[in-house]
């Protein structure tokens, strides 16, 4: 398989995507990783032992974080993100990954790859951590700030299939993010979506409150992009703050330091379970190709995790399965 990586996108580019690709190339020698960007910027981070399955694809421009998404995609045809999208469109790559401008990546999905038949609004999805380590697949996490009930129905169907194809769940439980569990709770969007999801060919369990997500009350969490992005950022911030408070407390005295040393393996396991970077890689579902959004602050390890997500989706035929499911709807 071939995966195109936007080497110029993200806060830590090009170092993070290049080093992440090098680590992934050694771990998965059957995968060809295509670093898309400016060779002069990429080469310093390749070192002398570049794996044979890592290739540079030249792109003379890049999309900045503050660029207006649609205008940038149209006016910068040689930007690394756009070139990577074209490679997927033309069959030169099986997937693309970018940690760059989220709006621009959405525009690449719509303008370069095009919407999948039967899908009006694609959605960003990612696995949120849970205490049992199985995680909760949530979508939309920020691709669309305004949604219709029909969009949430699409997200439910795509999320359910993702869990089946990629994670091997026979009958994933689908929940709707809401302010209460009662069917009558929520705004007009939530109420209308509840009716649609109740009649859909999925295992819909009803409304799920944000406080229950970590307990994995459902396997797929459906939400509009505005609420979903707030949920995601709140969880990331809460986890990071908790770890910082613990770090301060556990280094405040000799007794605390000794206790911390004894419990270090336990704390490390908890951090790995709750760290959003360990769950990096959000596929943009609903476009004609596999597009994976990497976190803007992704480091090399996060980039490797995004590559792993892309490999899993490719190996399990996610995009062809979605296209077949929605064809004619």
TrEMBL record:
Alphabetical keyword list: Acyltransferase, Cytoplasm, Lipid biosynthesis, Lipid metabolism, Phospholipid biosynthesis, Phospholipid metabolism, Transferase
GO CC annotation: cytoplasm
Subcellular locations according to the entry: Cytoplasm
Enzyme class per UniProt: transferase
Pathway(s) the chain acts in: Lipid metabolism; phospholipid metabolism
One BP annotation, GO: phospholipid biosynthetic process
Keyword S-adenosyl-L-methionine: no
Catalyzed chemical reaction(s): a fatty acyl-[ACP] + phosphate = an acyl phosphate + holo-[ACP]
Pfam families membership: FA_synthesis
UniProt superkingdom: Bacteria
Coiled-coil region(s): none
EC code: 2.3.1.274
Listed InterPro entries: FA_synthesis, Phospholipid_synth_PlsX-like
A single MF term (Gene Ontology): phosphate:acyl-[acyl carrier protein] acyltransferase activity
Family of the protein in this entry: Belongs to the PlsX family.
Quaternary assembly: Homodimer. Probably interacts with PlsY.
Function: Catalyzes the reversible formation of acyl-phosphate (acyl-PO(4)) from acyl-[acyl-carrier-protein] (acyl-ACP). This enzyme utilizes acyl-ACP as fatty acyl donor, but not acyl-CoA.
Record's protein name: Phosphate acyltransferase
